[in-house]
Amino acid sequence: MEITGRKLFVKGLLAEGVDTIFAYPGGMVTDILDELYKTTEIRVVLARHEQAAVHEAEGYARATGKTGVVLVTSGPGATNTITGIADARYDSIPLVIVTGQVNRSLIGNDAFQEVDIVGMVRSTAKDAYTVANREELGQRIKMAFYVASTGRPGPVLIDIPKDIQVASGSPDYPEEIHLRGYKPNTGVHIGQLKKAYKLLHSAKRPLILAGGGVRISGAQEELTALVNTMQIPVVTTIMGKGSISEDSPYYVGNAGMHGRYASNMAITHCDVLFSIGTRFNDRITGDLNEFASNAKIIHVDADTASISRNVVVDIPVVADARLALSKMNEWAEPMKTEAWISEIEGWQQKHPLLMRRDKGLSPQMIMGGIDRVFPEAIVTTDVGQHQMWAMQFLPVTKDRPMFTSGGLGTMGFGFPAAVGAKIACPDKDVIAITGDGGFQMNMQEMATAVTNDSPVIIVLLNNQYLGMVRQFQQFFYGKRYEITCLARRKGCPENCKGPSELCPPYEPDFMKWAESYGVEGLRVNAESDIIHALETAKANSRAGKSTLVEFDIAFDENVLPMVKSGNPIDDMILK
Length: 575
Hints:
The chain is α/β, with parallel strands linked by helices.
């Protein structure tokens, strides 16, 4: 008995274990939505913007380990997903994005809300294709979930023309699929891995650089075991933070543009750098000619294309991080690293990671409050200064993971990602750390949180500026704060160097905004009020109510250390 494409689509989702879809309706997906209406096994979450729907699916995917699913219509519905697709690709998040498309007979005719979304996302999605006929629909859906979740995970887009959604065809959905040109690596070259181990074990100043691949593969325990046995210090990328406990005596800190002084110095002076699950992007390496220039470099990564693309390495190992580390633990033996670790500790003491306490409420105080009040929670961040302060001062633990936009650096990511994580994990506290700039990019998603009974705690650091760019303007552009002051109006002085008593009022009033959604708003100006505000927010969350806690911080707080783009990572601005 034949069934329609839309019925097969829902059948495929159920076969893939999908229980939640983040969606926005439109003409070219109405048939699919009508079919979803008939099932109680899949929850359809109405986002308030398609970009936010993708970020919500990212938060859901990170919180559950499952593939996130997005459904939007053609034209602007599809194009609004592109930023989220690129974000998921950079950070290796498994997503399936389903876009409706006009009837096949209209494709290429500039029909209403027709765009070539597949062509647009080919360079950002892991894969993308338009379903050409009804007979291949089941196979294409199966392919999308398989490709998205295997190898280096990522987003896959399926574009389904409207006429295929209503056309009848086979009811069969494939149980497995074999793709000739896609063979994700599932093993490890033992010979290469042994070479890597021998080189690492022979080092006098060994260092492990752990990236997001360690967390994606769930290799935290394996990394910790190797480090404890071999006694090797570890630095992390932003995405790798949490790969090893921050209480470990071997953990140095994050490295790169805003990494710790000791971490960057350790990379500069190590003699063997064992990097695992990282792409070596420019925020980590700085000047490529000076990056780990005294070291032999080992690179372990599941993605063949990532190895030696940015940094030419001495020993490449194509392997899943967990598999590689498990095998190395079979060979691991202690090393004599006391002198090297002592040298790193000297760098830590020379330039500890601390903020001044004489400028009022500081980000370090705020992160300390979160650490105290929320030992167990899911934390998301937006992008900007607050993101770096969270990375510097808020430990990531097994019970308090942190989701952030690392590769693309997408402002507007943090809040919808928190909403998606809360929908996925309703019994956990979820905190979105954001800035007044990034928050305004997707603040409409409070409606999604409220209507889905998914209370989120928003920690908003308000310095009235687009702080990261303002910091660049302060250091490198003579304090010419062009369009970074969020309170600036037409009547303001042309050459403003910062806030004064003449400044206009800041808009919006976040307390009134919170009230309009039935959300409690709290404004904090003093260190003594931090804990009470966060405990109130926690109580509200447990009672089913979202809270926005706005922390007023100085406009000229900076993220330090800082490496100027293109400079060596040991050339740091420290004050």
